[in-house]
Amino acid sequence: MSALAVQALGAAAEAVERHLPGLVEEAVASRLFARDATLWGPEAESEAAIRLSWVGLHRSSRPLVGEVEALREQLRERGVRRVVLCGMGGSSLAPEVITGTAGVELVVLDSSDPHMVRSALEEDLAASAVVVSSKSGSTLETDSQRRAFVHAFTEAGIDPTERIVIVTDPGSPLDEQARADGYRVVNADPEVGGRYSALTAFGLVPSGLAGADIGALLDEAEEVADLLAEDDEANPGLRLGAALAGTRPLRDKLLFTDAGSGIAGLADWAEQLIAESTGKQGTGVLPVVTPAGGSPTDGLDSTDDCTVVVLSPQDQEEPPAVDGAGSVVGVSGSLGAQLLLWEVATAVAGRLLGINPFDQPDVESAKQAAREIMEDGADGAGDPDLVDDAVEIRAGGDGWMPEGVSTLEGAVDALLDQLDPRSGYLSLMVYLDRVEHADLAQVQGGLVRRTGRPVTFGWGPRFLHSTGQYHKGGPAQGVYLQVTGAPGEDLPVPGKDFTFGEFIAAQAAGDAGVLVEHGRPVLRLHLTDQARGLAQLRAALAR
Fold first, then answer.
1. Is the Cβ–Cβ distance between 20 and 233 less than 8 Å?
2. What are 455-484's pLDDT values in tens digits?
3. For strand 128-134 and strand 164-168, is the pairing parallel, antiparallel, or unpaired?
4. What is the β-pairing status of strands 391-396 and 522-527?
5. Rounded mean pLDDT of 406-427?
6. Confidence label for 380 from pLDDT (cuts 50, 70 and 90)
7. Which of 220, 381, 523, 530 has CA atoms 20 to 30 A from the CA of 191?
């Protein structure tokens, strides 16, 4: 039996006690698993009606196990020993968790950064297979990556139809075109949204091809499905949903820390699920993946608006206590069980918050802004407000940058001065190669200590499908520090009139523009020389 436990302390425990009786009386769990689209109110009903198949994936995805194994063997016979996934948001984060936990290699390409794309193209192409995942079939990042791999395989004398596998919804533009061109296509369940798709073809095909045991993953989910569907106060999905979204007043920052769960990257996957599902209509709960190696409350002046989420080992018997935290929830269980648990809890949280947990209106607004910038043939940046050596500095928003600021340090100080000391958060959004510059994430802890407030760190454009929704649709509490860089060598998108460098610049400019439209203060730092600019940035943030 797959053990699954949710334990709460402090305000989180009070929230569980307050909301559980009502959730049970209203039969929320059984109605959810019966796919009752009325759970989130009339405005959400039409969307929810076509987004609830995820509650039965532990059974409906079973045929994929044999199909993926046969395909893996076929690719192995063709000399494939490396699998690359081109996908964004839920299409990439779930496979990253599944393969990381299984200890098998999967190259996840969820970026438009030209250096990162080129690295994925050039590393052992002859032994590579590529999974292209796009629910809509029109995701521009994924289409650009697909074009790059088709071109690379063709140039290398390799038939791309023998190396590229397409995962998409039935009837999507990508589905129809890929089948016409002779590619192997695996259709996903169209009635599952991207961030709830971990146990669909989007999660299982790349993970299984990389070598993860996807049958065992489905077994783990199936073992807890009946428990999660019960209208009972012991239901861990109801308990977790209440702990996340039922505190009074709402503790809208969720500080994630891993205390030995054995599940690699679970917090990153949960971050996109929760942030994109709840951050809208001026409310929501913001997941913050805290730095590894310390207490999740280190550096915070107050945790009054925070709940600490501890991802615990499966044998954890007591609720975890965290220094300085007045609200704690501990979660433990196998990976398959937790994938279903967090999806249930997020749906329950949406009901408690009074929002539709299945749409993402502000993700599309940023995409549209990027498309318009590219159609205009500009980078969307405009002239900098000031230049400090290798860093161009632009202040987005109304009048928050004081006159006379002349340095990078001064601009950063001015942005941080906008932080509300009681409810604010800082978001650092970095549009660079997240593999090459992975150590840049280490600045997060120092910024928490400097500001005394929660700090999120996101790689662009990856975070746009995650916390990007919360930034614009959630409460107006954040200040935003965006970092972009001039590519050392750009890379054209085959068959298109733009480059990857131009594309990622438009994505960053589009997101910044929408943030400003929502009244958010944005400091945009563009590194004209990445090496020198990063050195300056680190120094400015470390003050």
1. yes
2. 999 999 999 988 999 999 999 999 999 999
3. parallel
4. antiparallel
5. 98
6. low
7. 220
In 3D, which of 219, 218, 224 has the Cα closest to residue 3?
224
Alpha carbons within 13 angstroms on the beta-carbon side of residue 238 total: 27
Token look-up 């500080």 returns: 255
Tokens representing 23 are 């959730």
pLDDT at 136: 86
**Shortest CA distance to 40 belongs to which of 340, 357, 283?**
357
Identify how many contiguous H helices and E strands the chain contains and give both numbers: 20, 16
Is a pLDDT exceeding 80 seen at residue 1?
no
Please list, residue by residue across 340-349, b when 16 or more beta carbons sit within 10 angstroms of its beta carbon and e when fewer do.
bbbbbbbbbb
Q: Are 408 and 537 in contact (CB under 8 A)?
A: yes
Residue 298: CB atoms within 10 A of its CB come to 14
- The three-class DSSP label of residue 274 is helix
Give the three-state DSSP class for 302: coil
Q: Are 158 and 141 in contact (CB under 8 A)?
A: no
The residues, ordered by sequence, that sit 6+ positions from 239 with a Cβ below 8 Å of its Cβ are 6, 8, 16, 20, 233
Residues 6+ apart with CB under 8 A from 516: 396, 397, 522
DSSP structural state of residue 259:
S
Q: Which residue has the tokens 């395989």?
A: 153
* Whether 506 contacts 375, CB under 8 Å: no
Question: Which residue in the block uniquely carries the two structure tokens 């081109």?
Answer: 86
Contact 516, 421 (CB under 8 A): no
Note the maximum CA span of the chain: 65
In tens, the pLDDT along 119-172 reads: 999 999 999 999 999 998 888 999 999 999 999 999 999 999 999 999 999 999
Euclidean distance between CA atoms 30 and 342, whole angstroms: 16
What's the rounded Cα separation, in Å, for the pair 413 and 393?
Answer: 13
Q: Does a cis peptide bond (omega within 30 degrees of 0) precede residue 461? A: yes
Tell me which residue of 258, 227, 237, 229 sits closest to 97, measured CA to CA: 258
Instruction: Find the radius of gyration of the CA atoms of the chain.
Output: 23
84 three-state secondary structure? strand
CA distance linking residue 289 with residue 254, whole number of Å: 8
C-alpha distances (whole Å) from 531 to each of 134, 272, 471 are 34, 30, 29
C-alpha distances out from residue 206 to 16, 78, 93, Å:
37, 17, 11
Helix (H) or strand (E) holding 485: strand 478-485
**Could you give the angle at the alpha carbon of 370 between the alpha carbons of 367 and 373, nearest 5°?**
155
Check if the beta carbon of residue 507 is closer than 8 Å to that of residue 377: no
Sign of the four-CA dihedral 405, 408, 409, 414: positive
